[in-house]
Every structure is written in C-alpha cells, then in structure tokens.
C-alpha cells in the first residue's frame, strides 16, 4: 500500500505538469501555503508567486510516521522541531475530509443515497455534509451530538472565508446567515456486526439490538472519555471545553462586528485609533471577554422542593418508562435496518474502535467507504493479526491490517492536515 501511495503521487505530479501554466501573480511575495504545504488550493488564481523549487521541496511527504504512544507535543516537534509551536494543526480536519470525499467520489454518489457517519462524535463531519454540501447523513454513535460551535461557525461565515473552497458548498455566505442549520440524523447506538450479518435470523438480530440499546444507554461521554453510568444518567461533553470554545467564537464574532463598524465610523466622534483597530490587540480582547462575562446570568442554587419517598420513586419510574419508550422509537430496529439498507457510502473521521467494523460492513455490502484511522487499541483487539502473523500494535500496523482485508481494491491516501491523516478507502470505480 505504501508503493501504491507513491505511484498515485507520481501520477498526480505528472498531471499537474501537463496542465498549462498561466499563473500571473500581482505581488513579489511567496505564497505561504506553498512554502508550508508544498501546494496551493488557489492554483493559477493565486496572487502570490509560486517558485518551482517549493514544489519539489514540499515538507509534506507520503511517509507515514508512526506516533503510537507519543503525546501531541512530541508529534508536533517531529514536524516543526524543538522550540516551535507544539500544536497539531487539524482544527478543520472535517472540512479537509469533506472536500476529499467530493473530489474522490463525486457529487452524484452522495446525492443518490445517504451517508453513514460511524463514530461521528459531536457530529461536526455530518453537519458540514448536510448544511454545506446538501447531503443526507446519519451519525451512528452512542454519544450525544454537540453542534453549537459549528452552528455559530456557519452563521458567522467561517466556512466561506476561502474562495478556493466555495465550489464544495451548495450555499453562499448570505444564505447561511439567514438559514436555519439542520442537524444530521442520529442513531445513538454502537456500530456492531449484527446490523449487517446475513447469517443471523431476524429474532437473533432483535435480541442483539436490545442489548446494544442497553449498552448505549449505560455509557456517556465526558472530558475523561466514555464512562459507564446508570441508565438515564446522561453526562454531557466536557462543559468547560465547549463553554470556552463558545466564548472564543463569540469574541471572534464581536471582533468582526467591530471591524465592520469601524469602517463605517472612520470619522465619528471616537479617536481614529480606536475605530480603526484591525489587529487582535490585548485591550480589545480583554474588553470583549469582560463584556461576555457581564452578560452571563449566574446560576442560582435554589433549595430542592421537599417530596415524600413514595412520590420520588413514582416519578423516577415514570421518567424511566418514558425514556425507555423514547429510546425504543429513536433506536428501533426498523430504523436501523432502513438506515443500513439506504446507505450509499460509510465514512469515519477518527472512528476509534469502529475502524475495523466500518471496513467489514462496506465489504460485506459492496458499498464504498473512507476512514481515517487513529488509535490502535491493541490491548482491546488482541486477536488482530497481519498476514505475516504479527500483532497489530502500531499505527502503521493498523493501516496495513485494514488494507489486507481486500488488498486488490482498498487504497490509501493522505489528507492535508497534521496528525493521523491517512485515509483508507475503497472506490467502486477501481473494481474491474
């Protein structure tokens, strides 16, 4: 599979060399994207110069670095050196994956049938596919979705800042500002083999499905990962992390509003240096933080209403019964069958333990898939073996293990973000 990646890269370079070069830069500054990535999405439309030597000396290579057991700071030092900013640049990895999917499979595949997003987590990947590309998506994950931050990004126009990427969107910035964001469909279940195993009877699948519902209700996602809880005790995502992200988004929104207002009030009563503040200065940042903190309503700790023990037990039973009925409707076996049968492609952005199940499901049903594996979980999957008999204990081993499920048709590629960026995929066009 490594040789296949190298050959695909060479074909891509040959195609780029055959294209006519009509690049007409309007400045003498070198394109920063070309320097950092060895490529530029704007192509010939870029206003900055593209020296040929930066194409041949691109820092991004097809070599897969095995970072198993290493921290994010250690991985960052591998790419930027000691003393540089120790942060993995993958904040917009879902957008990169979405654009790669459209380039690889085309628009027709996604519009003909639904997309199955396994282990979609907060739902960011499916949110972009639904609201930006107009596809039908279903997230299969026992964790609750959390879409507040991506909804604000959509309203503020963050997905439309780069004109080179607007061809992957079906709406523009003005339409997104007034449109009501749509949430993707959600199946709060584990993605397990009984969903597509044809050797099982219908009654056996229903029994396994009820067990899946029980397990899905008994876990929750916290800042410490998946946690087993009693039924009905749903724990949210990391509240602190989400709250800080929302405050940052609010600051950026206010900063953008201040910039636009400054352009309209250049000769107003306020001093020009305050009105024309275009930089992220410390005074403006602290002022915005203080304004946001003043608008937050403090929580009140009101004493609980005294109730008798019998009333409390009765209310608990009623709530448990109502929640069970709601779960049966939302996670019903009929709905699962409908989603699986109408699936046109299955994807997974860092799907954790579900990476192997995604490949097995796609191969069993003959549908395309694309996943970016991340963690190996060698202690959990101790029976995984490569064809040479070795255990799957590293990131490169995991890639090899997934490819070996169908070496003739499964291919690999590399996405344009840092960290675990190798995509394993199967394209029906490669099948003879």
Description:
Mean pLDDT is 75; it is low at 57-62, 230-243, 270-313 and 316-326. The protein has helices at residues 2-18, 32-37, 52-56, 72-80, 93-105, 107-112, 124-131, 148-156, 173-178, 202-217, 239-264, 272-275, 282-295, 309-330, 333-341, 355-365, 395-403; strands spanning 114-118, 137-140, 185-187, 219-222, 225-228, 343-349, 369-372, 410-414, 422-426. Helix 16 (355-365) links the parallel strand 6 and strand 7. 44% of the residues lie in helices and 9% in strands. It is built from 17 helices and 9 strands. With 432 residues, the chain is of the alpha/beta class. The chain is globular. The protein starts with a helix and ends in a 6-residue tail after the last strand. It has a 7-stranded mixed beta sheet, sandwiched between helices. Strands 4-5 form a two-stranded antiparallel sheet. Helix 5 (93-105) packs across helix 7, helix 8 (148-156) packs parallel to helix 11 and helix 11 crosses helix 13 (282-295).
Briefly summarize what is shown:
With 432 residues, this protein is an alpha/beta fold. The chain has 17 helices and 9 strands.
Number of helices: 17
Euclidean distance between termini CA atoms:
19 Å
Write down how many β-strands occur, each being a DSSP E stretch of 2 or more residues.
Answer: 9
Largest sheet data: 7 strands, mixed
The coarse overall form would be: globular
Strand content: 5-15%
Helix content: 40-55%
Radius of gyration: 25 Å
Low-confidence stretches: 57-62, 230-243, 270-313, 316-326
Structural class: alpha/beta
Strand order of the largest sheet: 3-2-1-6-7-9-8
Mean pLDDT figure: 75
- The SSE order reads HHHHHHEHEHHEHEEHHHHHEHEHEE
């Amino acid at each position: 599979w490594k040789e296949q990646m190298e050959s695909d890269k060479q074909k891509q370079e040959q195609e780029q060399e055959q294209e006519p070069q009509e690049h007409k830069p309007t400045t003498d500054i070198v394109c920063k994207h070309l320097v950092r990535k060895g490529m530029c999405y704007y192509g010939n439309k870029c206003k900055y110069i593209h020296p040929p030597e930066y194409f041949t000396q691109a820092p991004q290579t097809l070599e897969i670095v095995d970072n198993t057991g290493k921290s994010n700071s250690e991985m960052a030092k591998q790419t930027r050196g000691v003393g540089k900013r120790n942060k993995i640049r993958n904040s917009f990895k879902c957008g990169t994956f979405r654009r790669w999917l459209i380039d690889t499979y085309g628009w027709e595949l996604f519009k003909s049938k639904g997309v199955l997003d396994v282990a979609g987590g907060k739902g960011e990947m499916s949110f972009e596919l639904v609201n930006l590309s107009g596809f039908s998506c279903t997230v299969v994950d026992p964790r609750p979705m959390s879409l507040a931050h991506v909804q604000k990004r959509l309203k503020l126009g963050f997905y439309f800042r780069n004109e080179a990427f607007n061809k992957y969107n079906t709406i523009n910035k003005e339409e997104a500002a007034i449109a009501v964001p749509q949430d993707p469909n959600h199946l709060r279940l584990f993605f397990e083999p009984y969903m597509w195993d044809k050797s099982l009877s219908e009654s056996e699948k229903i029994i396994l499905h009820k067990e899946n519902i029980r397990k899905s209700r008994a876990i929750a996602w916290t800042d410490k990962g998946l946690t087993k809880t009693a039924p009905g005790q749903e724990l949210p995502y990391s509240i602190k992390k989400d709250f800080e992200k929302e405050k940052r988004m609010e600051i950026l929104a206010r900063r953008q509003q201040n910039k636009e207002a400054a352009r309209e009030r250049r000769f107003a009563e306020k001093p020009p240096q305050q009105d024309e503040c275009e930089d992220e200065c410390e005074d403006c940042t602290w002022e915005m933080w203080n304004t946001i903190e003043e608008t937050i309503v403090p929580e009140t700790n009101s004493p609980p209403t005294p109730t008798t023990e019998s009333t409390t037990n009765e209310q608990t039973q009623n709530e448990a019964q109502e929640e069970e009925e709601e779960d049966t409707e939302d996670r019903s076996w009929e709905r699962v069958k409908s989603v699986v049968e109408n699936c046109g492609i299955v994807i997974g952005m860092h799907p954790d333990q579900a990476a192997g199940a995604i490949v097995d499901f796609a191969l069993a049903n003959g549908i395309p898939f694309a996943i970016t594996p991340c963690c190996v979980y060698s202690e959990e999957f101790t029976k995984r073996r490569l064809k040479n008999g070795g255990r799957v204990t590293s990131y490169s081993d995991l890639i090899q293990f997934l490819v070996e499920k169908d070496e003739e048709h499964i291919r690999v590629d590399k996405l344009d973000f840092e960290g675990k960026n190798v995509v394993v995929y199967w394209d029906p066009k490669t099948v003879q």
